[in-house]
Amino acid sequence: MTDFTVGDDCFRLDGKPVRLLSGALHYFRVHEEQWGHRLAMLAAMGLNCVETYVPWNLHEPREGEIRDAGALGRFLDAARRAGLWAIVRPGPYICAEWENGGLPVWVTGRFGRRVRTRDAEYRAVVERWFRVLLPQVVQRQVSRGGPVILVQAENEYGSYGSDAAYLEWLAGLLRQCGVTVPLFTSDGPEDHMLTGGSVPGLLATANFGSGARKGFDVLRRHQPKGPLMCMEFWCGWFDHWGAEPVLRDPEQAAGALREILECGASVNIYMAHGGTNFGGWAGANRSGPLQDESFQPTVTSYDYDAPVDEYGRATEKFWLFRKVLEGYAEGPLPALPQEPAGLAAPVRVELDGWAGLGDVTEALGDPETGSGVPPTFEELGVDRGLVRYRVTVPGPRRAYPLGASGLRDRAVVYVDGVRAGVLTEDSGTLPEPVAGPAEVELWVESLGRVNYGPRLGEPKGVTGGVLHERQYLHGIRARALRLDAFEAAGAVAAVPFKPVESAAGAGDAGRTGLFRGTFTIEGTAGASGPSGVPGASGVPGASGASGASGVDHAGLELPGWTRGFVWVNGFCLGRYWSAGPQRTLYVPGPVLREGANEVWVLELEDAGEPHVELGPGAPVGADAPGVAQS
After folding, report:
1. Crossing angle of helices 164-176/120-133, nearest 10°?
2. What does the alpha-carbon distance between residue 195 and residue 88 come to, in Å, rounded to a whole number?
């Protein structure tokens, strides 16, 4: 039986010192058929371990509705086949720039500020989920011949709270569920974070992007003995919609990695391969003073400026990291797997069908509800998607300003069927006043829930009210259109599509809606269909290779389109937005079919010309100039 332990100065495997050279790769951000290649890239870079989070909300979007919780187990099996150990970070909170920090909407909506505390009702739902999830981790611990060597208790808790009773309970729950490998916590190298997030008897690790010696000095004040480990070495960063891309100089990043290893420490490179926020699961951040924090939604790409890019290719940073890491390897590093091949020739996809948002909502939306005040997304049980709010302005009355208070996050507004403007959290009043009587529609989309900080779990939708002058308008009718409504087999077949030319004759209503088109590709893989987890079991082609032609990926662009979501063969690639900086959506090769393929574009604001473009994707190193992140 293999024994992995935490010694006074280092990790030990069957009593022998071992250094963990780990890289983060999230199974839920990579199509399952591509796990093997991406894990082989980590091994070729010189890593001996892989780390992954587990997003609770992906696997239990509604209470008691468990979706493919076994995906983690399959990923751990893939890691073992790749010759890598594994670090599992099951949460329940994960941050990860993921929607709601991984917490389900039904949890934060019900418990509010009681989440991540000792609250008995919150702890009860966490325990129920862990008892579903953890058996596959327990069965794959290193003592049982599996790859799992470390399991995290919570995540960066010191950046959020100080409930020691909750952390100790959670560590105890992990043990009760059968986790016998060492447990750890991870926090920023700040005194208040380490005091708030550490648990007596558990290994404390630190997260930072540079300044290893200084960071480890702080960690040693709180943990005089035990292995040093940077659990998140931030080698790059993530991007926000409407902001400049963030890049990090490869030489600088390699120097910071070298400093960590020169301290005798273990490391987990965050991210080694970032992947993609498929399905609209990207989170959001708040910046600035607590009283006036600006909202910053995260883009669909999670490339992270990582050494293995979103397309699975080695970057300059990869080669510099490999050079640093080979000095700590036990023998020659493995060769790189074959470089992923992009689509051989560009394809222009003509969109020939259209259905207005109202018709799409009739076909796929939830039943309409009526209430005095606007229900939030949480009250409607909606995680990703949009809600149509309808309200009547009584009359006769003179024209007054009309707006929405507490809007999260963006609304396209129609007055008597005519588009009147786009509202945001920062600009919540229409540019022109509205007279009564009038019928008002607000199509509100959540751009991603906050994943970090004290505003974790804040509600979405119209969280205040619809105001005419200073008067609240009551009697709200609300109807949700969930993104996952498009995933059900055959669901979109119920949408009453018309020829795309009819959109031009529909006035303002034709600027939005669901557009459909088909295209043909010769000699590609079998296809994957709708699923909560990319390539999950039960999806055609989930266990094969990328394809007979070797096509690993494509890039999809929507020139002239504004904001919405795209599906290829029922697989949701994620959000697009003309705000940038992201212009191309990543298309996993296994999603493509030999022969006929179908594209759906859900435009929420202003459609472009009725076509989209598929190509091989951006070349390595072709990112736009960005801001250095140290």
Report:
1. 30
2. 23
For the question of residue 232 being annotated catalytic, the response is yes
Task: Please tell me the predicted confidence (pLDDT) of residue 628.
Answer: 35
Dist. CA 247–CA 299, nearest whole Å: 14
Closest CA to 171 of 200, 142, 132: 200
Q: What CA–CA distance (Å, rounded) separates 342 from 589?
A: 8
- Asked whether 91 and 413 are in contact (CB, 8 A), the reply is no
Q: How far is C-alpha 303 from the geometric centre of its chain's CA atoms?
A: 11
CA angle 285, 289, 290 (to 5 degrees): 70
Which of the four pLDDT bands, split at 50, 70 and 90, describes residue 522? confident
Among candidates 541, 510, 538, which has minimal Cα distance to 524? 541
Query: Residues with Cβ < 8 Å from 338, sequence gap 6 or more?
Result: none
User: Does 598 participate in catalysis according to the annotation?
Assistant: no
pLDDT at residue number 527: 43
> Of the residues 232, 378, 458, 487, which is catalytic?
232
User: Would you state the pLDDT for residue 452?
Assistant: 97
Lowest mean pLDDT across 89-93, 478-482, 534-538: 534-538
The per-residue pLDDT for range 375-402, each reduced to its tens digit, is: 999 999 999 999 999 999 999 999 999 9
Catalytic residue from among 51, 97, 99, 156:
156
